[in-house]
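Q: How would the structure tokens look for this protein?
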Amino acid sequence: MADLAFSARGFRERLARFCETAVVPQAIVDAVSKILADIRTKGDRGISTTLRRIDGVALKPSQFAISKEERAAALKRLGRADREAIRESVASVTDFHRHALPRSWSAKNRHGATIGERFYPIDRVGLYVPTDLASTAIMTGALAKLAGVPEIVAFTPCDSEGNVNDAVLAAMHLCGITEAYRVGGVAAVGAMAFGTESIRAVSKIFGPGNAYTVEAKRQVYGTIGVDLLPGPSEVLVIADRSANPRFVAADLLAQAEHGSGREKIFLVSLSRDVARSIRAEMREQVKTLSRKALIREVLRSGFFSVVVDTYAEAAEVANFVAPEHMELEVDAGKLSYLTKTITTAGAIMQGGWSATALGDFVAGPSHELPTGRSGRYFSGLQVSDFFRRSSLIRYNERALKKAAPAAEAFARMEGLDGHGRSVSIRLEKS
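A: Here is the predicted structure in token form.
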């Protein structure tokens, strides 16, 4: 796709059509529905059949579980540098989210009654960890552990021999995962939602996935809770003349390499010269990457480049896209303006040294972020998502007398005389 001008006729319509391609095709919806029905009705046998048919994996129900000993052994097999990287990531993520831990509180309202909130960790959560993504085990598992969730259950795909990536297993071990299963895709979501003979259902699912996995989460929502619906990766980079084209190109290519073919890559340039320089760098750098075939496929259908005249126009594009990741590769004097003006991005990387990959792995915030324009109403994963909340209300007679007139007025307005009576009866003399 050529670099479009923000001012070009029909630009907004073209941008909207491009973003709509993130919508899940009906064929995926139907395929997911069938698999979930098999898991719900056939249990373990449905999982085994699905894994054999889709992934070419032959597993008996007795082979689904990954023992604690297997996870601990994987940590020992890793090289020292890898072990330390995982520990560093766990520490960074835990430190970041500790600031956001919800706290129970109580106070007096205007009637003199005691009010407040109590927060409780969810009893049993399921974490979906895509193939080989040890960082996702951390970005979900570390939060669950920090929240004090008593049962943290992880699911991840395995290879044809039933093996799981050692780094994934090690990350699970260091995050305090209590149960783990070598089951991936829609089958994993079905097991978490409905339970089987060998796997107990969870109360809420966390974790990103491909279009099939995310659609499965959407379909089971209501049966159990889900965090958000994070699909294939997205990045939007705003670049002006101060940007280093090599950095920008590298970051765009990095988010295109995940491999689903449905990734979305957005470049918003403040001049055509900037856009041309970045495109030239992308053409050269992609030649050196191991996943260049996958990246080129994404760039053919999932790359959108626009040239804007002002930073306000750049912000307008970003707010419409609501990107999962956003990089501000702009003059330092414009960082504050853009950060305040763009209100829909999942994560904002400020300045040329803040590569998106740092947020993916070690910076601290969870990399589970909203995609497909859902950043307009979803935020990235937070530790509070692993809690449920109860509000508290405690009145005495004196406080009730102050509240009664307004409560009874509402009962009259809404035609609910029983509501009004339930208040007034408490104030009648026996």
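The longest strand covers residues 114-121.

The two ends are 80 Å apart (CA to CA).

Upvote if useful.
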